[in-house]
Amino acid sequence: MRIVLGVAGGIAAYKAAHIIRRLRELDHSVKVVPTANALKFIGAPTLEALSGQTVTTDVFDEIDTVNHVRIGQEAELIIIAPATADLIAKIAAGRADDLLTASVLTTTAEVVVAPAMHTEMWLNPATVANIATLRSRGVHVLDPAVGRLTGPDSGPGRLPEPEEIVDFALSVKDGTAGDSAAASTDPSGDLSGRRIVISAGGTREALDPVRFLGNRSSGKQGIALAKAAHAAGAAVELVAANIDTGLLTGLPAGITMTPVESTLELQSAMHSAQVWADAIIMAAAVADYRPAEATESKMKKSGDDGLTLRLVQNPDILRGLVDERSRQTSLRHQIIVGFAAETGDVATAALDYARAKFERKGVDLLVFNDVSGDRAFGHDETMVQIISSDRGEIVVGEEFHGSKDHVSQKVIAAVSDQFTHVESTT
């Protein structure tokens, strides 16, 4: 496929190199058309070496081939990543004062725009209006990710990862994408005014001052959910169970965080937060058992004998939250979302275990992912199905593959839809 990659003049222009490489690996032809300012961030030799084609910015370059018309006419797909606020404004206004904007104006191909800018620019009414204009004309806009920006600030405005941009753009071409892969993170906020509590990470049960029983959860999914809910306008409290501090560096300042260690600490924090929450998302991986006793000093080896541990069952936090909701009239409209990381066995499929958990827990939504063969924990990509009910019948959504950021946006959109459903039936 003949793809034109437009690159605007922002610090995220360096990611264009990864986008080109990925597209070339998939056997697509890539013509890079940067703006003049883009070349201040990434050099033309780099873009030419990776794409295998000449790079120019001016409509008067190679004028014998009428580039300013030909490139747009021959393109089968145009991707602009990053797209700055300035470039978006030009495209919305129909400007054609350089090779990139002229190519966009002449093309009949699908156009995908991946904005990248500071949060204040993304939320500015001018940018919001320009994005709405592009979408109304059929341009596919991939909303920016939430995270660390150029300086010390964080928020919506970060360029999505190259793999996500490529996946979205190619899904646009084959007709499987909507207007935006991240529509739920519209700056106006599908969850504006809502209060969301999200648990993340994995609980640890102490054996002694040094050792603990734990699990493989990294906390990536819960962090992504918190960012997506915040970007959608919600007030977010993150109850964080043993998350690597590196994952917390891009957490928006508006998200409050309560750190916990064990399952009992997580239970206490979640019940304390439940009283003010409009929705609870239990994404933490909770230990089913804990040691009956934890020693005050480090356990020592004793000859060649093995070690026998006596474990006791932990409380079912998710079921407890559902039960508390049923007891409190003030919580009757609260949405509760559970997660089911399941593996199948010779007798039962992983999805069947998830369906049984949905019925047993009494939640409104259950996000199921099959973690057989270490397919979810710690990785950036995942696959989920959202289980819900309709008139008493269990409904299993289609499989959804993508990055954990992308999956989180899907989950937050489902929560927003659930609010609409609950309020329309009461």
Automatic annotation (TrEMBL):
Top-level taxon: Bacteria
Function in brief: Catalyzes two sequential steps in the biosynthesis of coenzyme A. In the first step cysteine is conjugated to 4'-phosphopantothenate to form 4-phosphopantothenoylcysteine. In the second step the latter compound is decarboxylated to form 4'-phosphopantotheine. Catalyzes two steps in the biosynthesis of coenzyme A. In the first step cysteine is conjugated to 4'-phosphopantothenate to form 4-phosphopantothenoylcysteine, in the latter compound is decarboxylated to form 4'-phosphopantotheine.
Keywords: Decarboxylase, Flavoprotein, FMN, Ligase, Lyase, Magnesium, Metal-binding, Multifunctional enzyme
EC numbers: 4.1.1.36, 6.3.2.5
Cellular compartments per GO CC: phosphopantothenoylcysteine decarboxylase complex
Family assignment from sequence similarity: In the C-terminal section; belongs to the PPC synthetase family. In the N-terminal section; belongs to the HFCD (homo-oligomeric flavin containing Cys decarboxylase) superfamily.
Domain DNA/pantothenate metabolism flavoprotein C-terminal: 191-416
Organism phylogeny: Bacteria, Bacillati, Actinomycetota, Actinomycetes, Micrococcales
Chain spans, region Phosphopantothenate--cysteine ligase: 196-426
Binding site for CTP: 288, 298, 315-318, 339, 357, 361
Catalytic activity, reaction form: (R)-4'-phosphopantothenate + L-cysteine + CTP = N-[(R)-4-phosphopantothenoyl]-L-cysteine + CMP + diphosphate + H(+); N-[(R)-4-phosphopantothenoyl]-L-cysteine + H(+) = (R)-4'-phosphopantetheine + CO2
Pathway named in the protein's UniProt entry: Cofactor biosynthesis; coenzyme A biosynthesis; CoA from (R)-pantothenate: step 3/5; Cofactor biosynthesis; coenzyme A biosynthesis; CoA from (R)-pantothenate: step 2/5
UniProt-listed InterPro entries: CoaB-like_sf (IPR035929), CoaBC (IPR005252), DNA/pantothenate-metab_flavo_C (IPR007085), Flavin_trans-like (IPR036551), Flavoprotein (IPR003382)
Cofactor annotation comment: Binds 1 FMN per subunit.
One annotated GO molecular function: phosphopantothenate--cysteine ligase activity
Sequence ranges assigned to domain Flavoprotein in this UniProt record: 1-170
Cleaved signal peptide residues: none
Chain segments carrying region Phosphopantothenoylcysteine decarboxylase: 1-195
Cofactor(s) the protein requires to work: FMN; Mg(2+)
Name of the protein described by the UniProt record: Coenzyme A biosynthesis bifunctional protein CoaBC
Species name: Brevibacterium iodinum ATCC 49514
Family matches, as Pfam families: DFP, Flavoprotein
